[in-house]
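step: validate -> pass
step: tokenize input -> pass
step: predict -> running
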Amino acid sequence: MSSNDDQDDLKPSATPGYKPAGTAKTADEYAKLDAEDESLARWKASLGITPGVSTGDTSGPRVTVLTLELDSPTLPPGKKLVFNLKDTAMIAEIKKNPITIKEGVEYNVRITFKVNHSIISGVRYIQLVKRAGIKVDKLEQMLGSYGPHPQGEPYTKNFEVEESPSGIVARSGSYLVRSRVVDDDGEVYADWEWSFKLAKEW
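step: predict -> pass
step: emit ->
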């Protein structure tokens, strides 16, 4: 798969009315803005934005994507499909050797990420699926708006339930997936490839 061929498919959809904010503010700067507005202060607090919040080092990425998980109620007891994005050997392995997904079952994607500093909004997960070099599916899901967690904990986002394809044609061959986490400004926080095949059982 050519990385350049996928660039248009991996761009996030435009958010209506979005205008780049210019220089990003820290969570503490946002907390101090409009401090007298009580309803705005409550909304900012729900994002973890409170005066004096520690944002740590602001030179690195605003978001670190930790894991991607495929979850299904049909998974055998004890089986998990979790990709640790910090484990480069694991990511290289699942690109070369496809994971097995049961055909015709409901599943959902779950992503775990950490907001390191600043406020994020317009951050999306984009998944492009190809088979024999032809695009067969594209998923784009909004992560939402978050500030750094007050205790430095990661956030988890569960995406909508989907159903895996089924049938003899779907089971023949494997699928190559390109996953990306990107914001409205085009800043890419994670970009990786993996592969899967469909089978009658997990």
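step: describe -> The beta strands are 63-71, 81-84, 99-102, 106-115, 120-131, 134-146, 155-158, 162-163, 175-182, 188-199.
step: cleanup -> pass
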